[in-house]
Amino acid sequence: MSFLKAEWNNLAMINYEVDPEILQKYVPKGTELDFWNGKCYVSFIGFLFEKVRVLGIKIPFHSDFEEVNLRFYVRHLDNGVWKRGAVFISEIVPKYAISFVANTFYNEQYQTLPMKHTLKVNENSREFIYQWKVSNNWNTIHVTTDKMPIAIEPDSEAEFITEHYFGYTKINENETFEYQVTHPRWQQFEVTNNNSKIDFEGVYGKEFAFIADLEPTSVFLAIGSKITIEDKRKL
């Protein structure tokens, strides 16, 4: 039985190229940074975590909520095969119990903050808005997209960002947890406008304040799907 079954829907993905040296201290043992066309990325993602069941059980008042995370990409060589995965620097949700379960059982970096979202379907477009409150200030991911879905092209940056099917967690300098995430290949809505306003220093500290001065390499909206998260194992 999968540890968790759910849906990840309407994933607004804002992607930045960064100096890989910035991320080295976060790279779990047994993995290495994963590059696309020589570029090292972090992604800032807002989405809806819905229809959550943990070990088959629906937890009252904790089955549908927003999440915002900051992640980067690694790979792990397992019996001659590269597994491509993500490492999460920060994950924000509005439910304390979600943070407790993720931090306790998966050693993740969840924190609990006030959050809200708005989804709009207009005549010729869609809007996706995710907000979270830090120090009495609301941060906002706000993207406008075309109305009709399109494919995520093979060998594209969007494919690189979305097609990572493992999570890796740095327990300490010598220990790493791996867990598998399963989902079908996603489609996307093409983003036509990005009006996001994020206080990177206020949310993530001085170390990541520099992101505020960067232009995203891409912004897109992955439609999402049902997913599973399998039980962890130690590398």
Automatic annotation (TrEMBL):
InterPro entries: DUF2071 (IPR018644). This is DUF2071 domain-containing protein. It comes from Flavobacterium sandaracinum. The lineage of its organism: Bacteria, Pseudomonadati, Bacteroidota, Flavobacteriia, Flavobacteriales.
